[in-house]
Amino acid sequence: VPAPVAAPTFAAIADSIAKSGARTLILSVPHVTKFPAFRTGSAIAAQRAELAALGVTVGGDCDGSPNLVHVAGKIPPLVLRAIATGSAQPLSCANAAGAADEMLLPAEVATLDAVVAQLNVQLRQVAVSHGWAFADLDAVFGPMVAAAGAYSASAHITCVVPYGWYFSLDGLRPTGAGQALIADAAMAAIN
Length: 191
Description:
The chain is mostly helical and 191 residues long.
């Protein structure tokens, strides 16, 4: 949702809450393109040997590619298809225009990140103007993402915590441990 479109909705919700007299906590929108579910084509190319062992052939277009691959949506289906068919499955890091290809181009990432930044400015302004608490989730997710470490294709397929202790198997949603860190940030913002 573009920030100018969201602004009136934020204002209407805030006005309604303010009329009730409720104390409120507003959480920012995290920059999900930084989450471990998204890895560059270059990071995928670095996993060429591991992916080959899993029946996935990494294309040369992944070498040096800045495109973000949604690994949780792209890799497991290819591995399963390789197992089912008995033949290696190709993985391309090229964007298929108009297709649901589990790929984000750098320009798309920049657009998403800019919209999230604009939304967060608006959310913070709403919180400040009403005297409400505000928690910046990027400050919470940053260390969680760092703890996830480098992408490992074999861990992604064989491990119950391929993205570390803070992210679920999809690399997007926090685990209980990740949710606890979010709750800590919310409590700190309230106090």
